[in-house]
Specification:
- The complex is a heterodimer of chains A (186) and B (167).
- Chain A is of the alpha/beta class.
- Helices cover 34% and strands 13% of the residues of chain A.
- In chain A, helix 4 links the parallel strand 5 and strand 6.
- In chain A, helix 1 packs antiparallel against helix 5 and helix 2 crosses helix 5.
- Chain A is globular and about 65 Å long.
- Chain B has a domain of 85 residues: Beta Polymerase, domain 2 (2-Layer Sandwich).
- In chain B, strands 1-2-5-4-3 form a five-stranded mixed β-sheet.
- The chains are: A alpha/beta (186), B alpha/beta (167).
- At the A-B interface, loops of A face loops of B.
């Protein structure tokens, strides 16, 4: 018995399809990039209310979002890949949210966490934005009021599926371009 | 001698006579109505008088009474005498077509933001206010949301996608 016990339950991502031999491995470039993007998403939490508390639990040791490669919160839009909007967005907050989204570099994704971010939720009111997709495009909607951490993790996993199946240069894609144009971006 | 609501009422009646109406006392809080052009004079008198000493503006807001024709918008002032720890409330009624009230920002600096909020939600035009712009709602808003003139659910609204909610 060795004095130091190593953790033998470490899980690694699957190797992409490719050709390997002694001392080398060859595969297509996009598969490597997808692998990297998918498993090292940098989230930018934009938490305005109770969904933000659930998101903190998701980040904490019990649910540990770091298991899925999203360990580091970046509190600057310029370094982040995923904008996580958790909470009610008032109409006055709309332009600020949009500004944060515009400051993010491509490729960028957005998750709307909870009923308020997705649809305005219970706040069917003159002052509340009826879903953040009124101002920025959204990739994944997580329902719930607020959603449990499992729900948020499920949303992140759905986004990882999206990331791994997207083309490398999504921003050159005409569908994506027309989506951006419909939001008046660029 | 402790200051009581009776003394306050008596002093105000001596000074302003019949102009102050609708005297009321709910939960011990003295309430009365002041003509719209007299609000500054009443506030100044309550501030300066050596026995009244109402020198703290607790709150300033408005209420919309659609059933009071010709004086729909009610501006409410809450004053506090911090020495004798006694409060009072007076109301000013103005028509919703022309809701003009004199600002009290010269007497109470705290009224600046309170009057901006009251303008934001009820559209009360405070004459003489240094910066009467919206404070809480978006600047582009072209209506006053707390007035009771809107249906509970506005059928013409475009910002809620009906197909998402089965409406």
């Amino acid at each position: 018995m060795r004095p130091v016990q190593y953790n033998t339950k470490v899980k690694t991502v699957e190797m992409p399809e490719g050709y390997s031999g002694e001392g080398f491995f060859a595969t297509s470039f996009d598969k490597i990039v997808e692998l990297g993007r998918k498993n090292s998403l940098w989230p930018l939490p934009f938490a305005t209310s109770c969904c933000g508390i659930e998101f903190m639990a998701t980040m904490g040791s019990h649910y540990d979002l770091g298991r899925f490669g999203a360990e580091r919160m970046g509190f600057t839009p310029r370094q982040c890949d995923v904008l996580l909007v958790a909470g009610t967005i008032a109409k006055k907050m709309g332009p600020i949210l949009r500004q944060v989204y515009l400051q993010m570099a491509e490729p960028r994704w957005v998750i709307a966490i909870g009923a308020c971010a997705s649809s305005g939720g219970i706040f069917d009111s003159y002052s509340v934005l009826q879903g953040i997709d009124q101002v920025i495009p959204v990739d994944v909607y997580v329902p719930g009021c607020p959603p449990r951490p499992e729900g948020i993790i499920d949303g992140i996993l759905k986004l990882q599926d999206l990331v791994s199946t997207e083309s490398l240069r999504r921003r050159n894609n005409p569908v994506y371009k027309s989506l951006m144009e419909s939001y008046g971006i660029q | 001698m402790a200051l009581t609501n009776e003394i306050i009422k008596q002093k105000l009646t001596e000074k302003f006579g019949d102009q102050l109406t609708e005297w009321d006392e709910q939960f011990g809080l003295l309430t009365f109505k002041v003509p719209a052009d007299q609000n500054l004079k009443v506030i100044q008198f309550l501030y300066d008088d050596e026995t009244l000493r109402f020198r703290f503006l607790t709150d300033l807001t408005a209420v919309h009474y659609p059933e009071r024709k010709g004086e729909e918008i009610c501006v409410v002032y809450h004053l506090h005498n911090l020495v004798d720890n006694i409060r009072l409330r007076f109301k000013v009624y103005v028509p919703s077509e022309k809701p003009d009230v004199y600002t009290v920002t010269q007497r109470f600096s705290t009224a600046n933001w309170m009057e901006r909020e009251t303008y934001d939600f009820f559209g009360v035009n405070f004459i003489g206010h240094p910066n009467l712009i919206r404070i809480l709602n978006v600047d582009e808003m072209d209506y006053f949301p707390m007035r009771k003139e809107y249906a509970m659910e506005d059928p013409t609204r475009r910002d809620k996608d009906d197909e998402m909610f089965g409406r």
